[in-house]
Specification:
Length: 412
């Protein structure tokens, strides 16, 4: 006789494991827990016996999948769920359209948000020390060269406390942004964000405005600068991505904040991490030449994975991509570039049961905005510094050198 094992709801499973719902979702995405959908697709349930076995073993430290390692690190910074990303408990989707990237960075670093009522100041523009970087045509290369030089030129942080690291972060982000070669003349465009009620506030010399002059020769259409700022906010942190874990390991040795950022940049440079949007952009450009269906077919026929779709953390859609693609369609109008983006999106969805991820949204924003092929990677490289240094601040407060995994020797 087959005995039916009752299913637990999401809340029941999380309660039995003694974890938050967000942690349960993380277990699902990493293959530690199996989730079943209800017939109507509106709810989920979990095998009660499997949850009970996991609860008795305690919090999992290693994934059952041989291709991954699972490490649980407590943080007060970022939480992920299928519904979105939260920074210190605040939905990043809300912060993306109401606050500047600079304000959100301070929120991550210090847990404080400045007064953002219309007409008020946000403590003024960030000041950097621009570096004369050789122009090679490779914008990502210029960013990395600037970061390497800045690590030797900028003054060391006075301490490992949050205010000292935040001061270093502001100076470093401003320096790297202003060191990139300008491709557009004129004054820095104003960033316009919603204020109280129906009022709006204009922010001068924002990082988004200064970065735009180095990414696109076009004057930004209304809303495009707001979209770039939102992109910086949504990419500022994503819990323990590969580069962020590398940053925490470096911070555990008490490496200086600028050195910590160099470690993050190195990990981010991989084509499967920060460089993923470049592959998406190549597919979009090819679709402009031969059509979306043929461009996607070429990727499939080559045996490569279609870039920009699916995500290791999110079982369903990447909530960051949902927000950015919605904003992109709202602010860009019906342009040829946006039509190509939509055509490629539809062509991929006809082949794959996977939703677009943030790499697809990032490449789409860069293409519509007239940015170079590696423009999306540059945006991510600037944005993620905010999250890296926030995690460094947390790690500086932990026992040093706490990352010492053991290897299982399998050689002769």
């Amino acid at each position: 006789m087959i005995h039916h094992v009752p299913g637990l709801t999401t809340q029941e499973a999380a309660k039995r494991l003694g974890v938050k719902v967000e942690t349960l979702y993380a277990y699902v995405s990493r293959g530690l827990v199996q989730r079943e959908r209800s017939a109507d697709g509106r709810s989920s349930f979990y095998d009660a016996r499997a949850i009970e076995d996991l609860a008795r073993r305690g919090r999992p430290r290693q994934s059952s999948r041989s291709t991954s390692l699972n490490m649980l690190i407590e943080t007060r910074l970022t939480s992920l769920s299928p519904h979105g990303v939260r920074y210190r408990g605040v939905p990043s989707s809300e912060l993306a359209v109401t606050h500047t990237f600079e304000e959100v960075a301070d929120w991550l670093w210090l847990g404080t948000m400045p007064d953002t009522m219309p007409g008020t100041s946000t403590a003024g523009p960030w000041a950097g020390e621009p570096i004369d970087v050789p122009v090679t045509g490779d914008l990502v290369g210029a960013l990395r060269v600037a970061a390497a030089i800045a690590s030797t030129r900028l003054p060391m942080a006075e301490g490992r406390d949050a205010p000292s690291v935040a001061a270093s972060g502001r100076r470093l982000i401003a320096t790297l942004t202003d060191s990139l070669p300008r491709v557009s003349a004129g004054r820095v465009p104003q960033l316009v964000l919603p204020g109280a009620g129906e009022e709006r506030r204009a922010v001068r010399d924002s990082i988004a405005g200064r970065l735009w002059l180095r990414l696109s020769p076009q004057r930004p259409q209304p809303g495009m600068l707001t979209l770039l700022n939102a992109t910086l906010v949504l990419l500022a942190d994503h819990e323990l991505a590969a580069s962020t874990l590398a940053v925490r390991v470096a911070a555990s040795t008490w490496a200086d904040p600028t050195a910590v950022v160099m470690v993050g940049q190195g990990a981010l440079s991989g084509p499967l991490h920060g460089g993923a949007s470049v592959a998406v952009r190549a597919m979009l450009e090819r679709a402009t030449e031969i059509g979306a269906a043929r461009a996607v077919a070429e990727v499939v026929d080559s045996g490569q994975r279609i870039p920009g779709f699916g995500h290791k953390v999110y079982v369903d859609a990447d909530p960051r991509a949902v927000v950015l693609l919605r904003l992109l369609r709202e602010v860009s109008g019906r342009t040829r570039a946006l039509s190509v983006v939509d055509d490629v999106h539809d062509a991929v969805r006809q082949r794959l049961d996977r939703a677009a991820n943030v790499d697809f949204a990032l490449a789409s924003m860069a293409m519509v905005g007239g940015m170079p092929a590696d423009g999306g990677e540059v945006v991510m490289g600037i944005a993620r510094i905010a999250g890296w240094l926030a995690h460094a601040i947390e790690e500086y407060q932990e026992a040093p050198l706490r990352f010492r995994p053991r290897a299982s020797y399998i050689g002769p």
